[in-house]
Amino acid sequence: MDLHFISSLALLVLLVTPKGLYGASFTFVNRCDYTVWPGILANAGGPRLDSTGFELPKGSSRSFQAPTGWSGRFWGRTGCKFDGSGSGTCLTGDCGSGQVECNGLGAAPPVTLAEFTLGTGGQDFYDVSLVDGYNMPMIVEGSGGSGLCASTGCTTDLNRKCPSELRVGHGDACRSACEAFGSPEYCCSGAYNTPATCKPSVYSEMFKAACPRSYSYAYDDATSTFTCTGADYTVTFCPSSPSQKSTPVTETTPSTPMTGSTSQGSGSEPGLTYSDNGYGYSGSGYTSSSYGYSGSEDSGSDSSTEPGQTMLTDGSWLAGLAMGDSATTAPCIILYAVSLLFSCHQLYL
């Protein structure tokens, strides 16, 4: 086989292989004034990335290539102490592995989560969730894709605004009401496990007012799930300014659950740059009424409907994206094209 044929074959494969066959790249950026240890968890049965947890010093970044159809979650661990052998624990977001690598284990709440379901030639779905509480600011930004591709996340330091009944330590993290109180109405469980029966609480509304584009409770779909096609993604910790997590919290708040309600914020979140695509907090230009969510086995929350496993209510179209018709047809196209090239090659021998 001559070099001309080999180079032609390589070019042909490059031309007929869609970008979606390779998936997206994820870049993690640490703009905090301290080291962060990102954790990575692939959904059950799916392929892993090259790491399940790593050290990310302040001011540094690291990238990974995801396979097509990958789905899972990312988070930041803080206050970690690991010895020379890589053994240790973290103050927040610990995955319980006792190692820098999480090795298939999820984050202990409270923790800020970035969740992804990559399409196979179709739309990616992503969100930043506070359903399991909050431990640090984080945003997700897409680049090079088509569609809405809006930035999402939470740049506000909720640890400084956290009510005392939800506060962890000296403002190290902020629990969800579900974790703090365990009641079905906060966890969207039992009789409250449907969108009709589980409504925003005063606590989830507080989270939503501070971070309008993040999930605040399990059925907060319409303003919290985002889509993009063919993009690469950047996950940035402490995106707007160095976190003030170490600053003592001086506010005093009641030690019992709040009652009543607060007005839900509708403005742009400070420090978060939104794409100019017509998307508004009220949901203009984007509708997600057709989406439902099944529980995630690693959520760490009592909620049976934590948004991590994206699925249409009829279990069809988005499931097709996750399984990927294009992932099966692309290799067939390549094989057909290769066979044609071989036939042409034989003619000139």
TrEMBL record:
Pfam family, one: Thaumatin
The organism's place on the tree of life at top rank: Eukaryota
The keyword Cell division is assigned to this record: no
Signal peptide: 1-23
Sequence ranges of Low complexity compositional bias: 246-271
Keywords, ordered alphabetically: Signal
PROSITE patterns: THAUMATIN_1, THAUMATIN_2
Keyword Signal: yes
Ranges where the record places region Disordered: 240-271
Protein name: Thaumatin-like protein 1b
